[in-house]
């Protein structure tokens, strides 16, 4: 199947929940305030519970208990709330598709790792964009779920990567496009920001523009963490890219240790029933 055929098949099958659509509209309206967002979110008990759980988690480590959604949103900020709502909404909209052809645990591990690495390295792009970068990493590989659903045999072929080939190279060979290209079109369908779509379409080319280069770096660093038996930092990340970010081997080890600890918490928000894999 060609890229356009996957897009046509997706149609309305992957519609975002109403809460996500309304939140997108509200955040594009300058007159929206925290109370408006809190009122919208309060109508969804699952998301309300997750927001309170996140606000009281070790990820934020606030000194006192936060017991209302409006307080949680004020503490977390609208960007963090937007990311959580979108992550949950995306996960929910894709929850009914067939993913038997792939290892879903590894899919989420790699996606969450990429998002957290991007967030930790946000200062290389723009500290204020940390939440945007997290969502970018979390969603960069959603195309894999679409391929696994519609063409499971091709998804299995795409998983036949090894020490000499990176996943995107096998995807290009099998599909004539990468999963990130399909992810970009899925996010376009959901009216996500154009800068996120552009970053996804350039995710496998080490161009100097940001956030494209940061996504390139983070996704490959996440691969070394998800598939340590296949990849090392030296084998899949060009020296020029490593030099650009100035991270030592010790820096990378410490970064991945923190990412591994936080992945469990993030996974429990996105897919609560499956957090036992960690």
Automatic annotation (TrEMBL):
InterPro entries cross-referenced by the UniProt entry: HDOD, RNase_Y/CdgJ
Ranges where the HDOD domain occurs: 13-206
Gene3D superfamilies in UniProt: Hypothetical protein af1432
PANTHER family reported for this sequence: PTHR33525, RIBONUCLEASE Y
Annotated protein name in UniProt: HDOD domain-containing protein
Lineage of the organism: Bacteria, Pseudomonadati, Pseudomonadota, Gammaproteobacteria, Alteromonadales
